[in-house]
Design a protein that fits this description.
The chain is mainly beta. Helix content is 9%, strand content 47%. The strands form 3 sheets. Strands 3, 5, 7, 10, 12, 13, 15, 16, 18, 19, 21, 22 and 24 form a 13-stranded parallel beta sheet that branches. Strands 1-2-4-6-11-14-17-20-23-25 form a 10-stranded parallel beta sheet. The longest helix is centred in the first third of the chain and has 18 residues, at 12-29.
Length: 269
């Protein structure tokens, strides 16, 4: 009887290569995208999109996304006025306007390292956009940072009734300092609220206008927390200066205050 021999597959090697190719393609399909390198300079625009690296010709749309694309110590340039959403800053960064003082509807929490430095320069922060249902309770909130500089900024309309309602809200658990210079704080419940753990929150306020803040211009709460004042005008509030629970204020004597508590005089050198 003749022996029957089963036919072998015609292309065993080709079949193996096909299976291997399919497996590799599936693996590539589900691989995570490579991490995108952070950049030192990013741009933000109301006409932008939250994709890519936020470069000048392709700016991003929200402040939170721009921060995540910006390296520590970098700069975010705001190109035009817009609604930029709430954001958390966790690194040293500068946020400044590209052309004149630009309006940003935003609320920012600074929760960075104790050595980090954050700068807002020449921007106007607004807490409300009624047509969009936006009503933030503060403009700039500081939980932790080495230094925060607000230079030539305006902060307005932080009037939320169920929360803080402050233009600048310091609630520091560790030592932090905010310097406000050449700025306008208008139509908030409290202009600047200095609070947090005792002796941890320190504000320095120079050459600024506080106007029509419905409860107080500057409020300091807690033993050892303080505000140093020079050459400011605090007008149109029930209490220009409001010191509570051991909070202190020191003044060089050249501030205009219409009501409230009296700062401790300081000598001018």
């Amino acid at each position: 009887m003749a022996m029957m021999i089963r036919n072998a597959p015609a292309f065993p090697a080709a079949a193996r290569w096909l299976r291997l190719t399919v497996c590799l393609l599936i693996a590539l399909l589900f691989m995570p995208a490579p991490a995108q390198a952070l950049v030192d300079q990013t741009w933000l625009s109301s006409e932008g999109l939250d994709s890519g690296s936020c470069l000048a010709l392709a700016p991003c749309a929200t402040l939170g996304y721009a921060i995540r694309q910006t390296s520590a110590g970098g700069t975010i340039s705001v190109m035009d006025s817009g609604i930029y959403g709430s954001a958390t800053i966790d690194r040293s960064v500068t946020i400044r306007s590209e052309y004149g003082q630009i309006s940003m509807v935003t609320s920012v929490i600074i929760n960075a390292a104790s050595t980090d430095k954050v700068v807002f320069d020449n921007v106007a922060i607004e807490c409300i956009a009624p047509a969009r249902g936006i009503a933030y309770s503060f403009g700039v909130g500081v939980l932790r940072a080495g230094d925060v500089l607000l230079n030539h900024v305006s902060i307005k309309d932080c009037v939320a009734k169920t929360d803080v309602g402050a233009g600048v809200y310091m609630n520091c658990a560790i030592n932090c300092r905010v310097t406000l210079n050449d700025s306008v704080i208008f139509n908030n419940r409290v202009g600047v609220l200095v609070a947090g753990a005792d002796a941890m929150a320190h504000a320095k306020i120079y050459r600024s206008l506080f106007l029509s803040n419905s409860e107080s211009g500057v409020r300091v709460i807690g033993n050892g927390n303080d505000a140093i004042m020079a050459d400011n005008n605090l007008l149109g509030s029930p209490k220009s200066m409001d010191l509570q629970s051991g909070g202190a204020s020191r003044s060089f004597g050249n501030n205009s205050m219409t009501s409230g508590d009296t700062p401790i005089p300081m000598s001018q050198y």
